[in-house]
Specification:
With about 325 residues, the protein is of the alpha+beta class. It is built from 8 helices and 12 strands. α1 packs across α5. About 35% of the residues are buried.
């Protein structure tokens, strides 16, 4: 009976090990297939692959019904794709009805369910505005007509370009783990300063001056003083998530709005600023308030960062 139990445990460990490696391999293959399509589209359209990849990445985050193994996620509105009154995928019919759908794989069909056709169509839409980053911004505004969407996609393209890839899944804990710190789940707790409200984040208590790290790849979207958060920084990542770091004692030297960051970059240090005009400090123990906000293309809302912090803490300790 004892050996049977040991064998069962051994088999379970082997199964978990094998399954996890299969999942990682499948995920890697998806990223490789995506970037191959982006670069193929670049070759035929002359639009930089990272522009196309950023649009696809943005749309992957705003739809709830995206499958895990779905390669391309861009969804161009049907009337825009086919033209008013048309439903035929024949590229000549679409052109006749002033649709924008294009044939990206050479089969004379412009199919909105075909990834190559979709990427080529989006690339050609962008191309009519030009090839520069400013032209890309104008194209995005004409297509989405939303400032935050334009800014998010443009910055994601910059991140993809800088790191020359899209498989950017590394993460870090927001407080240096070789310092003393403590935290618990405080999301949703009541707060009284400025009126009754809920706590939209997790408080990580640490000594003054403890380094604060970027948890993710992204771009600094905001930096400065806030009545509630004191000295704070906001970073928007490539998954349409805004990361909010508040009550800082100061910022890292040279950190500025528009700067591209990666996990582990020092962006500031723990403090106790806030709850008053610029410079107010010491109204509560030193800690980092860390919040996460999701954007779905229409609105933005906070969600509980605690489970992510626990995971990133384990990742950070493993690396050390």
């Amino acid at each position: 009976m004892k050996y049977k139990h040991l064998f069962s445990c051994f088999f379970a460990v082997i199964l978990i090990f094998f399954t996890s490696h299969v999942i990682i391999a499948e995920e890697k293959n998806i990223y490789e297939e995506r970037i191959a399509l982006y670069k193929k589209t670049e070759a035929v359209s002359e639009i930089p692959w990272y522009f196309i990849a950023a649009v696809d990445q943005y749309e992957r985050q705003i739809y709830k019904d995206i499958e895990d193994d779905q390669i391309i996620s861009i969804r161009i509105p049907q009337e825009l794709w086919f033209g008013a009154g048309n439903h035929a995928t024949d590229k000549h019919a679409i052109q006749l009805f002033d649709g924008i759908g294009k044939d990206g794989n050479g089969d004379d069909q412009a199919d909105p369910n075909n990834g190559e056709d979709v990427l080529y169509t989006m690339a050609m839409y962008i191309k009519q505005f030009g090839h520069s980053e400013e032209d890309f911004k104008i194209a995005l505004w004409n297509y989405y007509k939303r400032d935050l969407t334009v800014q998010t996609i443009k910055n994601t393209a910059r991140v993809f370009k800088k790191f020359n890839g899209i498989h950017l899944t590394n993460r870090d804990f927001p407080v240096a783990i070789n310092y003393n710190y403590s935290y618990r789940n405080t999301w949703g707790d009541r707060r009284g300063f400025g009126g009754n409200r809920i706590h939209e984040g997790t408080d990580i208590f640490a000594d003054y001056g403890t380094p604060v790290h970027s948890t993710t790849y992204g771009v600094v979207e905001l930096k400065g003083w806030n009545l509630y958060g004191g000295w704070r920084i906001g970073i928007r990542d490539i998954f349409n998530i805004y990361h909010y770091y508040a009550h800082l004692s100061g910022f890292a030297e040279g950190i500025k709005v528009g700067q591209i960051v990666q996990p582990g970059d020092v962006i500031g240090s723990v403090g106790s600023t806030g709850y008053g005009p610029p410079g107010t400090s010491g109204k509560f123990p030193p800690h980092l308030h860390y919040g996460m906000y999701k954007d779905n293309g229409y609105s933005e809302w906070s969600f509980d960062p605690y489970p992510y912090l626990r995971k990133w803490e384990r990742m950070a300790k493993t690396k050390d």
